[in-house]
Q: What sequence folds into this?
C-alpha cells in the first residue's frame, strides 16, 4: 500500500462514531489545516495570497448540503441545456458549435478542447464509423484534483482531522499515543512511520459502530460549516467550472458520468449530486466494510473497522469493473493514481479518450506535478504523449477555473436562474 | 456462511480459466442437470411433465446473448412506452389504467396488482403527500426465483457444473478428490460436508488467472447453447412475463431498476440488459476479488481465487449501500435470502413497497416455499403480513408466467415489433 493511498483511505473513513459535541468546526478546521500546512513536504509552496488576489467574486453565503428531498433532478436534459443557454432538445449534439461559444464556454480554444469536442462529435455521429450507442457511453472522472482541488491537502483529510479532534476529548490518551498523536498534530511523516497497522488502528478506534446514516449526516454537517483554509469558502464551492461544463456537455450527448476516486465513497455520495449532477449510485471510491443489523427493531448498516476496497492506481480499473461492469470510453484524471484508469479505458476497442488535467496555474489555482505530496503526476506526464492522451493545462486551457468566478451564474453546480 | 449461500457463491465464480475445448455443452449440461436432480433433497419433487403440458408456445430458436454493439437502448422511455402500446411521453403515470388492460396485462386484477399500482400512483403524483422525486425512485429486484426460475437448481449452478466438467480432463485427479468429486457428481450433500474451506479450494483451483473478458465470453457462449433440463429452452428465454412488465412499468414511471442478487455479478452482467432492460451497471451481486495487470502490453482485470462479497440475506442491504448508496423505495424478492433487503427498504421514511413472489403454481411453474433447497421462503411468509409486504401468488396473480407463452410478442425482454 502506497503511503498516500494509505493516508487517503484512512481518512476516507474516519468520523466520530455518533453525534457528539460539534465544537467549532470552522476554527478546528482552520487550526488543523494550518498544522498540516506546516508539516507537509510541499516542493512548490506557493504564495497563497496570490491565489486569492485573482478571485473577485462575492462569497457564497448559503449552505452547502441540503436534504435528499430537494436534490435537483440534475440529469434531466432540460436543466443541462438551460445551464448551457441552449434551446431544449434531448440528445442534441454540439459538434458544429465546437470552436465558438458552444458547449464549453470556460475553455479556451486550443488542442485540448478540440480533442474533447472531436471525440464527442465522433462517437455521437449516427451511422459514422466511430458511433458508440448511448448505453456504452460511459465517462469516468477522478475527483480530487480533477473536479475540485486537492491543495493544500485532500479536502477529505481536513474532514478527517476535524473528526479526530472532535473525538479526542473522550480519548485523552490519544495525545501521547501514536498514530493518534501524529494525526492530531497533522504530522504526516510520523503517521507514515506507523504503517498500515497504525492506520488500521486509527480506523478501528474511531469507527466501530457508526451507521451509514450517521456518517452521511456527519459529512453534510461538516460541509455546511467548514471553509477552505485559503479560499475561505465552502469546499463544495471550489469545483472547477470547466469540468462542470464538461460533465454537462457529456451528459447532454448521452454519456453516463461517473466519479472514480481514491477518496471514500461514503464521503462523496452525500454531496456529489448537488454539486456535480452525478447521482450517488454513479460514484466509485474507496471503502471500509459494513454489516447489517437490527437495533431495537430498526435495521441499520454499520461501518466496520476493516478496509474493503482501495480505489486508487491499479485499483481503479478493478473498481470500474466491480461497480460499472463495462469499460468506459472516456477517462479524466490528474495524477499517477489515475494512470491505470486511463490505460484501461483507452486500451478498449473503438474510439477512446484519455485526459489529464495538469495543474499549471500558480496564479489562479496551484502549480504542481512530479513531486507533489497530493496528486503527484510524473509517469503520466512522461507517457501521455506516446499513449495519445490529451493534457489539459489549467493555465492555458481554462478561461475560468472556479465556479464562483462568474459571481452568481452558478450555485453549487446548478444554474442559478433555472433552479432558484 | 450458510450452505446454500456458500454453494451459490462458489458456483457464481467458477469457470474454466481460459478458452479450452468446448466439448458439447448441451449434452454436458443435460447430464449434469440429471445428476443434480437425483442428488437434490427436494421435498416437493414435482412431475416435471406437468410443467411442460402448460406450455404451448413455439420454441425460440434464435440465440441468446449478442454482442454489446447491438444492445437496445432499452431504458429510453419511448421504447418502454412503445412496448406498452401507449403514446410517447416521458414520466406518464398510468394510475387511471390500473384495473383495466393498462400497464400490467399479464397480471390478474387482485390485491397484489392493486397494491403495486397504488404505490406507483402515489409516489409519482406531483404535489401529493407521498410524492418521491425521480432521483429517489430506486427499485431493487432479486433475480433467481423473482425474475426467472430457480428450479430444478439455480441456473448458474448448471453453468458452474458444465465448467467443472470442461476442466476435469486437465485435472483427472479431481475424480477422486473432494470437493471436486462431489461437484462433478452433483452431490450437494457431500459438497456441503467439505465446508467453506473446500468450496474456496474449488474456486482457487478453477479460477486463478482468468480475465474478466474471458469470463464474460464464457457466460455468453454457455447461454447461447445450454438448455434448461425440463423446458428445453435457453435459460434466458425463461424469464417471467409479469416481472418484465413490472420492470418496464416502473421505469416508465421514473424508477431506476436494479438487480440485487445472491448470484455472481459477473455471471449476470453479460445478459441482463438484453433480457431485462437493466444495464450491467445496475446489477449488484456476489463477487470474487480481482486485480489489474498488464500482460504483454495489454491491460487486463484478472479474477482472483478469493471471495470478495456475498450479496445474500443480510449482505443485500450492505450491497445496496455499497453499490447504490441510497435506500430503495421498492424491493421485490421471493425467498428468505431477500428478507433483509425488504426489511431495509421498507424501514425507510415515506411510502415503501415490499413484495414477495410466492411460487404456488405446480402446473405452470413450480410450487415450493418453506422447505425448498433453492429459494426457501419461511420467515418471509410468516412475517410478510405483519410487515405490510405484498405477497404475489403466481397461481392466482399471474395470467401468464413465462415470456414465451405469448409466442412472439416478446423476444428476450424486448418488444418484438419495435426492436426487430
A:
Amino acid at each position: 500500500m502506497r503511503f498516500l493511498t494509505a493516508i487517503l483511505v484512512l481518512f476516507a473513513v474516519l468520523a466520530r462514531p455518533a453525534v457528539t459535541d460539534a465544537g467549532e468546526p470552522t476554527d478546528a478546521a482552520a487550526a488543523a489545516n494550518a498544522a498540516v500546512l506546516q508539516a507537509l513536504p510541499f516542493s512548490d509552496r506557493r504564495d497563497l495570497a496570490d491565489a486569492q488576489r485573482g478571485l473577485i467574486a462575492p462569497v457564497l453565503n448559503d449552505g452547502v448540503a441540503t436534504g435528499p428531498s430537494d436534490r435537483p433532478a440534475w440529469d434531466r436534459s432540460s436543466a443541462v441545456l438551460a445551464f448551457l443557454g441552449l434551446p431544449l432538445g434531448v440528445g442534441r449534439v454540439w459538434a458544429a458549435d465546437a470552436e465558438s461559444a458552444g458547449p464549453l464556454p470556460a475553455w479556451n480554444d486550443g488542442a485540448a478542447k478540440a480533442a474533447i469536442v472531436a471525440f464527442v462529435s465522433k462517437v455521437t455521429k449516427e451511422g459514422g464509423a466511430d458511433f458508440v450507442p448511448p448505453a456504452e457511453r460511459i465517462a469516468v472522472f477522478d475527483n480530487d484534483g480533477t473536479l475540485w482541488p486537492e491543495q493544500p491537502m485532500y479536502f477529505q483529510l481536513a474532514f478527517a482531522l476535524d473528526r479526530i479532534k472532535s473525538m479526542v476529548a473522550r480519548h485523552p490518551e490519544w495525545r501521547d499515543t501514536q498514530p493518534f498523536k501524529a494525526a492530531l498534530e497533522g504530522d504526516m511523516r510520523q503517521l507514515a512511520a506507523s504503517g498500515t497497522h497504525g492506520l488500521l488502528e486509527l480506523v478501528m478506534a474511531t469507527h466501530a459502530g457508526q451507521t451509514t446514516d450517521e456518517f452521511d449526516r456527519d459529512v453534510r454537517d461538516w460541509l455546511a460549516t467548514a471553509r477552505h483554509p485559503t479560499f475561505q469558502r465552502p469546499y463544495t464551492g471550489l469545483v472547477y467550472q470547466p469540468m462542470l461544463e464538461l460533465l454537462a456537455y457529456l451528459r447532454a450527448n448521452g454519456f453516463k458520468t461517473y466519479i472514480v476516486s481514491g477518496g471514500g465513497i461514503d464521503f462523496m455520495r452525500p454531496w456529489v449530486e448537488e454539486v456535480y449532477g452525478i447521482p450517488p449510485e454513479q460514484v466509485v471510491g474507496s471503502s471500509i466494510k459494513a454489516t447489517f443489523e437490527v437495533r431495537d427493531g430498526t435495521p441499520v448498516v454499520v461501518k466496520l473497522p476493516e478496509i474493503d476496497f482501495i480505489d486508487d492506481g491499479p485499483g481503479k480499473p478493478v473498481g470500474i469493473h466491480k461497480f460499472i461492469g463495462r469499460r468506459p470510453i472516456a477517462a479524466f484524471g490528474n495524477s499517477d493514481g489515475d494512470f491505470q484508469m486511463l490505460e484501461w479505458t483507452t486500451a478498449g476497442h473503438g474510439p477512446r479518450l484519455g485526459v489529464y488535467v495538469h495543474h499549471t496555474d500558480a496564479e489562479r489555482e496551484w502549480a504542481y506535478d512530479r513531486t507533489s505530496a497530493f496528486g503527484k503526476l510524473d509517469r503520466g506526464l512522461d507517457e501521455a504523449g506516446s499513449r495519445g492522451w490529451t493534457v489539459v493545462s489549467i493555465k492555458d486551457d481554462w478561461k475560468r477555473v472556479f465556479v464562483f468566478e462568474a459571481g452568481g451564474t452558478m450555485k453549487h453546480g446548478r444554474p442559478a436562474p433555472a433552479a432558484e
About this structure: The interface with chain A takes residues 68-69, 71, 73, 75, 133-136, 138, 212, 256, 265-266, 269, 273, 279-281, 283, 287, 290-294, 298-299, 301, 308, 314-318, 321-326, 340, 343-344, 347 of chain B (CB under 8 Å). Chain B is about 40% helix and 15% strand.
